Amino acid sequence: MALYILLSSLTDEGRKTVKSKPDRIKEVNKEIEGMGAKVLGQYAVLGLYDFVNIIEAPSNETMAKISVALGARGTIQIMTLPAMTIDQFIKTLQ
Question: What is the mean pLDDT of residues 16-22?
Fold first, then answer.
């Protein structure tokens, strides 16, 4: 399974949803798992993005499907980054 960093920013509609239903955030995690991936970590952050998620998925295609499905709702804007552990990175360089 591959690792991905999902950076997301709430839209105006997304902020309204989170304010009125904060538990919606965890419901989305279940939806992600229903699409074939697993949320390994999730953080609310300050700055350009509102959330940072670490996701494990079987393929780029699965992650693309998830990103498009979530983004199409109009409540968040997403940047998806493929990632690797530092050990994997070092092994690649050797």
Answer: 95
Considering only CA atoms, give the Rg of the chain: 14
CB 74 within 8 A of CB 63: no
Residue ranges of the domains in the chain?
Answer: 2-93
Whole-model pTM above 0.85? yes
CATH code given to domain 2-93: 3.30.70.260
Q: By the 8 A CB rule, do 57 and 63 touch?
A: yes
Q: Are 2 and 80 in contact (CB under 8 A)?
A: no
DSSP letter assigned to residue 47 = S
Token pair, residue 56, equals 């494990």
Q: Give ∠ CA 86-32-24 in degrees, rounded to 5.
A: 115
User: What are the beta bridge partners of residue 44?
Assistant: 51
